[in-house]
Amino acid sequence: MAGLAGIAHQRAIKALQKAGFRVARKGKHVVMTNGQKVITIPRRNPINAFTMAGIVREAGLSISEFRRLL
Questions:
Q1: What is the CA radius of gyration of the chain?
Q2: What is the C-alpha to C-alpha distance for residues 13 and 69, in angstroms, rounded to an integer?
Q3: Residue pLDDT tens, the chain, 70 long
Q4: Which of 9, 15, 14 is nearest to 28 (CA)?
Q5: Helical (H) or strand (E) element with 68
Q6: Which of 6, 11, 18, 22 is deepest in the core (most CB within 10 A)?
């Protein structure tokens, strides 16, 4: 999980957009989908490492793949 702590939600959204996800809804959380998977990103800065690792796992990416997208 090293390297995931302290990521702003805007950076996470941009990285996930590069992975093929699009923003479906915004509110207190940002909901993104790629047509098959739906992930939820909290709108707080920074997103802690455990939460970010869970989001990456739900998106079907590895930590190293996500880091490359940042």
A1: 11
A2: 10
A3: 456 777 899 999 999 999 999 999 999 999 999 999 999 999 988 998 899 999 999 999 999 999 999 8
A4: 9
A5: helix 63-69
A6: 11
CB 13 within 8 A of CB 59: no
What's this model's pTM, rounded to 2 decimal places? 0.88
DSSP-assigned letters across all residues of 8-53: -HHHHHHHHHHTT-EEEEESSEEEEE-SS-EEEEE--SSBPHHHHH
CA distance 15 to 58: 14
Determine the Cα–Cα distance for residues 24 and 32; give it in Å rounded to an integer.
5
Check if the beta carbon of residue 13 is closer than 8 Å to that of residue 32.
Answer: yes
Could you tell me which of 6, 14, 8 has the C-alpha nearest to residue 66? 14
